[in-house]
Amino acid sequence: MKKESTLPARIATRLVLGLSLLIAARLTTTVSAQADQRAADMVITNAKIIQCDVDMSESDAVAIKDGRIVAIGSGDVQSWIDPQRTRVLDAEGQTLTPGFTDSHIHFVGLGQSLQMLDLSQAESWEEVVAQVEQASKLLPKGAWIEGRGWHQSKWKQPPSSAVDGYPVHTSMSEAVPDHPVLLTHASGHACFANARAMKLAGVGPDTSDPSGGEILKDASGEPIGVFRENAQSLVRRVQVRSRARMTPSERMELLREQVRLAGFECLRHGITCLLYTSPS
User: Rg (Cα) of the chain, in Å, rounded?
Assistant: First the structure.
C-alpha cells in the first residue's frame, strides 16, 4: 500500500508557530479594542456636580466618552479610566452643571457684535481712537469699521473738545480718514461717525434732525459725529447699503463667520442649546 505524503517536520513546526502567533495577535487586538471601548476620553474628579434631575442630585465625578456622559460618581468612573487613554482633570471643588438652554437669543446678532471692536474697556476717548486706528491698518481703504460699547461717563477724563460730554469727530477723522467709522454707544441709544461716514451719509451743517432723533452739533452748527436715537439711521442705512452690494457668496461667508463666532461664545458660557429669536 502506498503511504500518504506528510509535511516535513520542520515545515509543520513553522506552520504551527505561525498560526499560534496569528491567534495571539488577534486576541491581543480584541482585548485592546475592548479596552478602547471601555476607556473614557475624559474623567473629571473632585467636583461638585449638580445633575439637575428631579431631586437635584449631586455627585463628585463624571466620565465622558465620544462627547457623552458614560458614568457619574467616583465609584463608577474608576472602571472607565485608562492611564494611557483617559485625560483625568481635578476640578478642585468647582461646580459642574448640564449645559444651559437660552430661551431668547438673537444668535446672528451676537455674531455680528463679536465682529465689532469692543470699546467697553476703553478708559478715554484717546484709547477709542487708538483701537480704531489700529483696526484700520488691517482693512482695505473704504471698508467700514464698526465698534460697540463706548460710554463717555466711564472715561477717566472727558475729551479735550466735547459737546454735552460727547467727543467731537475731529481726532478720529484725522487718525482714520480713509475708512467710514460707526461706533455704537453702550446704551444703544446713540452712535458715533467720523467725517468719512458722515460724508457718505450726506450729513452736514444743513441736515435737519429726523423725527425722534438728534444730530449733535457744535456752537457753529457743525455735526460733531454723534447721532442720538432715530438720527442713527442716517448713517446706519448707508452702512447697510454697502453690505447689500456684497455678492451672495460674500454674504454667505459673512453669515457663516457670524454663526461660528456666536457658537463659540455660547459654548464659552456653558450654553449648549438655544431657541433662536428672529424678526421672521
Answer: 32
